[in-house]
Design goal:
The chain is α/β, with parallel strands linked by helices. It has four domains: about 5-120, Rossmann fold (3-Layer(aba) Sandwich); about 140-310, P-loop containing nucleotide triphosphate hydrolases (Rossmann fold), CATH 3.40.50.300; about 315-385, Helicase, Ruva Protein, domain 3 (Orthogonal Bundle); about 395-450. It has helices spanning about 15-25, 35-45, 65-75, 90-95, 110-120, 145-160, 175-185, 205-210, 230, 250-260, 285-290, 295-305, 320-335, 345-350, 360-370, 380-385, 405-415, 420-425, 430-440; strands at about 5-10, 30-35, 50-55, 80-85, 100-105, 165-170, 195-200, 235-240, 260-265, 270-275, 275-280, 305-310, 340, 375-380. The longest helix has 15 residues, at about 320-335. The chain is globular, with a radius of gyration of 26 Å.
Length: about 450
């Protein structure tokens, strides 16, 4: 395979679909076939190809509907449209709206392969847990099978190749430092220092010295020259966590350093050139902080060259069993305990919780459960005690809002790896009713079996 490049092919003409697949497979690409827009969207719920090639005119939703879905939900995924001569104006208009390209039928195989190669050269790398390809080193610490996270990591792979400042946003506990480290490790600076500082954890009077350093005699106790974090990170990356809590006076000095690419240690008259990539993070709404007069707008735009939002754990609930078992292995080894599994009740409770503290909270709950367990199995009672709350249960399907039906079903199929019996039980429906629900939303449960977790 050409670097294991995956292409999703969409056409309601099965013969043309097979022919296209044969040509691309012969050229070294891995192909997946979908005979409708609905089937393609179903596939995109659980996997990420590097490219989509779709017919324009199909029964049901057409190729433009598929492009609109991809453009809205997976904007980094390139799309090539196949079109008859009569729909060329539509295809040209679509190209102006973001479609990578289009080909007229019958298409020239050489032109097809040329467009595919150009599209794939622009497409971000896609690596999934189910892939047989070794995962890049920068991704090894990120545990996920969530399509939302895969989209984010694809952006990380692309952003890391440059030197633009990156602002990470998201709730507390979602893993902003982990993602910042991944950006550094995926970049050309990976062999240079990665230095972190929490701007909210250091008193204002010390923060300037920590960042920029100080000269001997600059203040009482400054008995020698002290290098700041900008100097320690020279050539590498500096991660400014909780940047929204930085005092206004220091914001001005940080802005000057970023604009001029120099720093001046406290008490020194000498300016020092710096070569540092800035990655910052906050759980605050910085635009609201700007309006309130707590954050400089000019600094915001210096930091926000590229913005990435990390989803909450509730937005990637299919990752909860995966993360819980990962933490279980880590903490069982750390505390030298022979514990290797959660009870079904414990897993159900983990899935039902809202996780306001996100991954950090889940990690703490698992560690507390491991410490307190006297047997090889983590019980639901231990998890409930660690959560300091009463037992909850997964919301029944009838209680879920109708507009979230499809997302609800997709998450359950991911959690159960396509096991309809378990999925139906979890949704509190018999198998017949559950199959009808899957058919209503055109969900193919067999696609989810590849997600079977390896514990």
């Amino acid at each position: 395979m050409i670097q294991d490049k995956k292409i999703l092919l969409v056409d309601d003409d099965r013969d043309l679909l097979e022919l296209l697949s044969i040509r691309l497979t012969a050229a070294g690409y891995e192909t997946t076939l979908a005979d409708s827009t609905e089937a393609a969207i179903n596939y995109l719920d659980i996997s990420r190809p590097h490219l989509v090639i779709s017919d324009m005119q199909m029964g049901g939703l057409d190729g433009m509907a598929l492009f609109e879905y991809i453009h809205r939900n997976i904007p980094t995924l390139p799309v090539i449209i196949l079109t008859a001569y009569g729909t060329i104006p539509d295809a040209v208009a679509a190209t102006q709206r973001g479609i990578f390209g289009y080909l007229t039928k019958p298409y020239d195989p050489k032109i097809l392969l040329g467009q595919v190669e150009r599209a794939l050269n622009l497409a971000p790398a896609v690596e999934t847990l189910s892939s047989t390809t070794p995962v890049s080193s920068w991704r090894k610490t990120i545990v996920t099978r969530s399509a939302v996270m895969e989209d984010l990591l694809a952006k990380v792979g692309r952003v890391a190749q440059g030197d633009a400042s990156v602002l990470l946003s998201g709730e507390s506990g979602v893993g902003k430092e982990l993602l910042a480290r991944a950006i550094h490790q995926a970049s050309r600076r990976c062999d240079q220092p990665f230095v972190t500082i929490n701007c909210a954890a250091i008193p204002e009077q010390l923060l300037e010295s920590e960042l920029f350093g100080h000269a001997k005699g600059a203040f009482t106790g400054a008995v020698r020259d002290h290098k700041g974090l900008f100097q320690l990170a020279d050539g590498g990356s500096l991660f400014l966590d909780e940047i929204g809590d930085m005092p206004l006076l220091l914001q001005a000095k940080l802005l000057h350093a970023l604009q001029e690419r120099v720093i001046r240690p406290v008490g020194s008259t000498q300016s020092i050139p710096i070569n540092v990539r800035i990655i910052s993070a906050t759980h605050r709404d910085l635009k609201s902080e700007i309006q309130a007069g707590n954050f400089r707008e000019d600094l915001y735009y210096r930091l926000f060259v590229v913005g990435l939002t990390i989803p909450s754990l509730a937005q990637r609930s299919e990752d909860i069993p995966l993360l819980a078992n990962h933490f279980l292995r880590v903490f069982a080894e750390k505390h030298q305990k022979d514990i290797n599994v959660f009870s079904p009740e414990a897993i159900s409770f983990l899935l039902a919780s809202s996780w306001p503290g996100n991954i950090r909270q889940l990690m703490n709950v698992v560690e507390q459960s491991v410490v307190m367990s006297a047997v090889p199995l983590i019980s639901g009672e231990l998890v409930r005690d660690a959560m300091h709350k009463d037992e909850e249960q997964m919301t029944s399907f009838d209680e879920a809002r109708r507009q979230f039906e499809r997302d609800y079903l997709v998450k359950i199929l991911k959690i159960t790896a396509g096991n309809v019996t378990q999925a139906a039980k979890l949704a509190k429906r018999n198998r017949t009713e559950f199959y009808k629900l899957l058919q209503r939303h055109q969900l193919d449960f067999t696609l989810y079996k590849s997600l079977q977790e390896k514990v």
